[in-house]
Amino acid sequence: MPANHRKFWVILFKSLIFIASYGFVAYRVYADDQLSNLLFNGTVHNESAWLWLVFLLMPVNWFIESEKWRLLLKPTEKVRLLQAFGGVLAGLSIAIFTPNRTGEYAGRIWILRQRNRLAGISVTIAGSIAQSGVTFIVGIISGWLWLNQNTEATFTTPTQLGLAIFTVAAGFITYISLPKIALKISRLQTPKVITKINDGIKNLNRNLLLKALLVSGLRYAIFMTQFILLLFYFKTGISVYEAFLSIGMLYAAMLVIPTITIAEPGVRGSLSLLIFGVFSTNEAGILAASLTLWIINLAIPALLGALYLAALKIDKLW
């Protein structure tokens, strides 16, 4: 492809991402009457320290995610933490308007050398699996405790407990076996694109995967803390223990429910009302906490990522 044509497509790609990211956030904030009323016309002005702390934890959250990605990238390409942070934000700028945030996988790779970008996709997927694993485990624990506390039925039968343990163990073994699985795939006759994508996971090792799992646990603790602080800020009256149970169930549910990202705030808000509503009648506060966390942890970083991506020098799209 001629250089001038390539430059045109790169500029077009960046422009579309920039416009889509900012347009999406503007649409969510201003077109959703309930959300805009909560943000701009709300009457809650209590305990502002909680809100500031949530904002301060936002970069901590994404720097932890960036460090996890940087660790997993080591066998493929060594990048600095700030580079990884920029890549993570760039991924968010695409993830925000794609189904189930699938665009995040492709969005991060533009900070990598062209030859490593396909491998970077599978590395990103490995990190996502680690985060999903932590979410699933916490969801099982909190869901079990929540159901036992809020229903008359008993959920402690040996069969159910054994099934939960088996599911977690099978998932863990599969996760740490990803490099071996990738190695077996590499011995098959596969298209060149698949081979390059597969190389990212094949080059990982068990030690890196375990570190990624631990970092994922730390990141989960951060955004759970943010959610709890917002529940306090909006005066929901929900205790820390009740919040732990509800948040664990909420994120596990979001993990398994197919979601188009444009509808995610609505889905998250509806589930929050259903789950948290058992412990509080302050529906406005519950909804405000859920949607505010979405804006702080996803919308704002995505906008910053769009700016970063627009300024990033990309030689070729692929």
From TrEMBL:
Record's protein name: Uncharacterized protein
Chief location: membrane
Keywords: Cell membrane, Membrane, Transmembrane, Transmembrane helix
Alphabetized Pfam families for the sequence: LPG_synthase_TM
InterPro entries to which the protein is assigned, alphabetical: L-PG_synthase/AglD
Cellular localisation: Cell membrane
Species of origin: Salinivirga cyanobacteriivorans
Recorded topology in the membrane: Multi-pass membrane protein
GO cellular component: plasma membrane
Transmembrane segment boundaries: 7-29, 118-147, 159-178, 212-234, 240-263, 270-288, 294-312
